[in-house]
Amino acid sequence: MNRETETTMFWWPARVLHWLMAAMILAMLFVGAGLVASVSQRHAWLLALHKPLGIAILLLALLRLALRLWRRPPPLPRELGPALRLAAHASHWLLYALMLAMPLIGWAMLSAGGYPVELGTGLRLPPIAPFDPSWFAALRWLHRSLAYALFALVLAHLGAALYHGLIRRDGVLRSMTWRQRAPVATQDAPD
Fold it and tell me: Which pTM does this prediction carry?
């Protein structure tokens, strides 16, 4: 890969983490919807999947954020107007905030409810909030509300990716895929 292509493509570890986490977050949203839709014990396996998946997302989000701060993403196309540029920056940072907040709030919610966060056979995380039923209720509401916000943001992110890939054809979508593209005139990188 030449130097020009390197500056128009996300670093390969960032691309791997992006697509891995996209699959994990979509799975988590559907598992969470299944948990909300049923209080039956028959779906205990969903909760057993939800907890370790949430912690894995938290750890990968921390790694992804570190990689993003260490190696800046490629710049946005120069033709992108200020409103779209602001939306790109804000939506990315909001995605990071939710990828970090959702698992922590879920962990705190379970801790406040007196429920252990088990990640597998014998591996149990310590509580991060005191046992308190009122905290549990408030954190449960917050976790659910932020899940809806995350779902809406994921849809907006997907819509923006399709807009860039199918309508503008400006290389923004391809910068996160495996295909190389011709360099484009750029202004600045998204934060």
Answer: 0.83
